[in-house]
Write a structure and sequence with these properties.
Beta-Lactamase; single chain; 6-stranded mixed beta sheet; alpha+beta; 696 residues; Rhopdopsin 7-helix transmembrane proteins
Length: 696
């Protein structure tokens, strides 16, 4: 090894030794109480000792080889306990890799033995050469095994903690990967390359020291807490120092290249790398990315995400006030994350870029009813969920709405993105201590914004569903009303036709007046039912004999068609009499329309156990089994010209609403039987009377 490379090697190993010694002291102070921390301290001390032995004794001494084996042993033990920190699956995989641990341990013992034999043998001759090559082969085998073990542990770790194990795996892979290249070059007797790699080995270890420091944090579940500004400047200085040493090493390595053409090419490549570095290092975006990366992995997070998310969900789901709307709760939930003093919600209108002021929390002062944003800004929010720092945007001269640009109360603007569309914006006021937004704020607010957007979209969907249900209920009620009006019109038209022939008959005039009064009363009831605020109008329970209902229907319909009332008319039920009359009137009207002019319709009352059965029987055209199964009780399905197809459906709904059941029996060409089942009043049974009443 020439003098420049030896200089670089000695000082590089000394620098790395100092870094690892300092790292071991820091680790012992913070994590020595944990088993993983103790083992990590041992590995760091052994690594520092190995680096010192090379820095002060060169690379060919016996103690250097033994120190390297001890270093590897320390890290092997760390790998043995590491899976316990990263999930059950990794632990099981590590247990399955115990034979590999044993093999690696035996290889370390063999290395120490071969190193001793190499020292005792003569420095020349076939025996010494064979032992030296055996030592290199053993180290190559050990490094390959260690790399395989590292990869297995990383791949076997649970997905949610794989990011934590990444620094450990990366540091060890870089250390042993470098050793593999070094020993591979030595095995193939590439003397110049081996000298260069030995010289740069210390710098490689120095560069790995910060990564291993990060590894100590993840292995021991601890968090570094230095000043962010100081840490960033320290990392910048360290990075600059490492880069300078690498550049110096590259320049010195050029002196070892004897071929002029190769030297020119190497110099050109080095120049391009340095120039590219000088172009990209001052970039602001690179500085920001590096700061964010360092802050994410080296420092304690500002937010306790579990606590924040539980409080957010409680406020959003339950609220601080039972009277607060979901929109106001959403604003407060967002403001609580950053401890903002106030907040407001703007919802998007159909016009792209237009937002309407919808709700606010603790907002003081005037505010516009609507804000208009540039379409390009809205599209950017949709694409990336871009959160705007109002002060920064104001200073940069971005196209904010006039009110927002002039407002001193607003601190941040958070878009609410749902399925790639901005459904609203949340304005946040300043926290107690005004500060600039950083990556933690952006990540937290972006996630909370997506959740709020989902809540608001769900609330809008529920509101639309409720409105649709109200319209559906109104339309259904209106359809029933239309059906009833059709029947009333038919009844009044029939009365008008009969009046031409029987106007001079006093009995007919009395019946006509009764019919008209009942029609007017029913029309008023229909109008009341149309009101959405009186859906239960007329729903009154009372006890009555079924014979009373049948008598009223006989008086009303008997003049138009033969009607036969049969059975136990004294059975008493408790129900809504008006609804029952309406149902029987529907069924009776359908029976009359289905029957021939001279064929009577039968109303029969029977008792079956604790139920009263009211049957409407006709001998008309009847219905098929398929029609009864698929169409009969289906609204807006009718076999009659001009029919609404809701008579049977409404009849069943009304019967069920008064606590009864509606059954039907029918056959094509034989007629139909509709049976209304109602519970009897046990203590109020009236002695039944058998007989027939023929309506004229």
């Amino acid at each position: 090894m020439n003098a420049p490379l030896e200089f670089i090697g000695n000082w590089g190993h000394m620098l790395a030794a100092g870094l690892f010694a300092a790292l071991s002291i820091w680790t012992s102070r913070n994590f020595a109480k944990q088993r993983a921390g103790k083992l990590l301290v041992v590995a760091l001390v052994l690594t520092a000792t190995w680096l010192l032995s090379i820095a002060f004794g060169g690379v060919d001494r016996l103690e250097n080889g033994v120190a390297e084996s001890l270093r590897n042993c320390g890290w092997l033990v760390c790998l043995f306990v590491l899976p316990d920190r990263f999930g059950r699956h990794a632990t099981r995989q590590a247990q399955g890799a115990r034979p590999l641990y044993l093999i690696l341990a035996l290889l370390l013992v063999a290395q120490c033995g071969v190193d001793i034999l190499t020292t005792l043998a003569a420095s020349e001759g076939a025996v010494w050469s064979g032992i030296s090559e055996s030592a290199i082969v053993l180290r190559i085998l050990w490094v390959i095994g260690a790399l395989l073990l590292t990869q297995r542990i990383y791949a076997a770790s649970d997905a949610d903690v794989r990011g934590r194990i990444a620094p450990v795996a990366a540091a060890l892979a870089a250390m042993w990967g470098y050793d593999l290249i070094l020993y591979g070059a030595a095995f193939f007797k590439q003397g110049q390359i081996v000298s260069l790699l030995y010289a740069l080995r210390g710098l490689n270890m120095a560069a790995l020291a910060p990564v291993i420091a990060l590894s100590s944090r993840t292995v021991n579940d601890a968090v570094m807490a230095p000043s962010r500004t100081l840490a960033w400047r320290g990392l910048s200085i360290a990075a600059g120092l490492v880069l300078s040493l690498l550049l110096l090493s590259a320049l010195l390595a050029l002196n070892t290249v004897s071929n002029p053409a190769m030297k020119a090419v190497t110099t050109g490549i080095l120049f391009l790398l340095v120039a590219g570095g000088l172009l990209f290092v001052p970039a602001t975006s690179l500085h920001r990315s590096a700061k964010v990366l360092a802050a994410k992995h080296l420092f304690r997070h500002r937010y306790d995400y579990r606590e924040q998310w539980m409080a957010f969900a409680d406020t959003l789901g339950q609220g601080w006030d039972n009277g607060a709307s979901i929109q106001a709760r959403a604003v407060k939930a967002m403001a609580d994350i950053t401890q903002s003093s106030c907040g407001a919600l703007l919802l998007a209108e159909k016009e792209h870029g237009l937002f309407r002021w919808y709700a606010d929390w603790n907002w003081k002062g005037e505010h516009p009813s609507e804000l208009r944003f540039p379409v390009a800004d809205v599209e950017r929010m949709q694409a990336r969920g871009w959160i705007t720092d109002i002060a920064e945007a104001r200073a940069a001269g971005e196209g904010l709405p006039d009110w927002l640009a002039e407002s001193q109360a607003t601190w941040a603007l958070v878009p609410l993105v749902h399925f790639g569309e901005v459904v609203g914006l949340v304005l946040l006021g300043h926290p107690p201590i005004t500060r600039a937004l950083d990556w933690e704020d952006f990540d937290m607010l972006r996630a909370a914004g997506r959740q709020v957007a989902s809540y608001l979209a769900e609330a809008r969907g529920q509101q639309a569903l409720n409105e649709a249900r109200r319209f559906e209920e109104f339309n259904r009620r209106f359809a029933f009303i239309m059906h009833d009006i059709k029947n009333l019109v038919s009844q009044i038209a029939l009365t008008a036709r009969n009046a031409e022939r029987h106007a001079d008959n006093p009995a007919f005039r009395a019946d006509m007046i009764l019919t008209l009064n009942e029609s007017a009363e029913k029309m008023n009831m229909l109008l009341a039912r149309l009101s959405q605020h009186n859906s239960n109008t007329g729903a009154s329970q009372s006890r009555f004999a079924l014979g009373d209902v049948l008598s009223a229907l006989a008086a009303r319909a008997g003049a138009a068609h033969p009607l036969l009332i049969d059975g136990e008319r004294g059975l008493v039920v408790e129900a809504d009499k008006a609804k029952l009359e309406q149902v029987v009137a529907h069924l009776l009207q359908n029976a009359v329309e289905a029957s021939d002019a001279g064929t009577p319709v039968v109303l029969r009352v029977e008792q079956s156990g604790d139920e009263a059965l009211l049957r409407v029987i006709d001998h008309g055209c009847g219905m098929s089994a398929e029609f009864m199964r698929d169409e009969l009780f289906r609204p807006f399905s009718s076999t009659k010209d001009g029919g609404f197809g809701i008579g049977a459906y409404e009849a069943r709904e009304l019967v069920q609403s008064i606590g009864g059941h509606l059954d039907v029996e029918s056959a094509t060409g034989k007629g139909s039987i509709f049976t209304i089942r109602l519970p009897l009043v046990p203590s109020k049974l009236i002695t039944p009377t058998n007989g027939h009443e023929r309506a004229a």
